[in-house]
């Protein structure tokens, strides 16, 4: 669900714990494990013509998304603001959505939101996500890598910090538009991809819900009502519905699964 997104093509992430892992970075008194130092920022252009960026962990998980910027230059300034503020616990604001999932905003010194997390199944997962972002920012340092997101519509399967397997759906513009829950095996995650493909074009399988601050979220459920995919937050219910339409269009294509 990342920062109050107005684009109908700015959706999607994971309903589990954040995906970084391995030992030793201490932030706020808690040990936060980081998979590698290869975390970086990805930029993409939304359907609204604005430029967004994601903070992507070393294993490929998107852990923070920006607001929209009028230009790529503005987005890069936003990246620097994340770097300046992202290691400070005081700049994070934890929030609960109306469906009992959790997320957090990263704010600048003027209290402007400069990044928003994925949605988490529990408050403790969201709090760990905050610590993970702080640790990643500390590892990245003052000269962050900023690259264009890969422009290929596809599913990507990866391992989270909890050693479970996750997948997300990437759109043709590089944006990550849907994310999964955690699975105990890679084979189960791949089966989850297949479940998204079979259920995601059925309007009845989608739920649109109101979070807070007037924002709206989306999730995809299987026939047994189990959540198999979740999206970002939108500034309006109509934008959330349009986001579902966009994802359904992607699922109408034959997409590769990158593991």
Describe it.
The protein has two domains: 25-148, PH-domain like (Roll), CATH 2.30.29; 154-258, PH-domain like (Roll). The chain is of the alpha+beta class and 259 residues long. The longest helix is centred in the middle third of the chain and has 18 residues, at 123-140. It has a four-stranded mixed beta sheet, with helices on one face. Strands 12-11-10-16 form a four-stranded mixed beta sheet, covered by helices on one side. Helices cover 24% and strands 28% of the residues. It has helices spanning 72-85, 123-140, 186-199, 237-251; strands at 25-27, 30-32, 40-45, 51-56, 62-65, 92-96, 102-107, 113-116, 146-148, 154-159, 165-170, 176-179, 206-210, 216-221, 227-230, 257-258.
By DSSP, the count of extended strands is 16
Instruction: Write down the overall mean pLDDT.
Output: 84
Strand order of the largest sheet: 5-4-3-9
Q: Distance between the terminal alpha carbons, to the nearest Å?
A: 24 Å
CATH topology assignment of the largest domain: PH-domain like
Question: Which percent band covers the strand fraction?
Answer: 25-35%
Question: Low-confidence parts lasting 5 or more residues at pLDDT below 50?
Answer: 1-36
Second CATH tier, the architecture of the largest domain: Roll
How would the global form be characterised? globular
The whole-angstrom Rg is 16 Å
Q: Give the structural class.
A: alpha+beta
Question: CATH top level of the largest domain?
Answer: Mainly Beta
Major β-sheet annotation: 4 strands, mixed
Number of helices: 4
- Give the % helix: 10-25%
Integer count of domains:
2
**What is the H/E string?**
EEEEEHEEEHEEEEHEEEHE
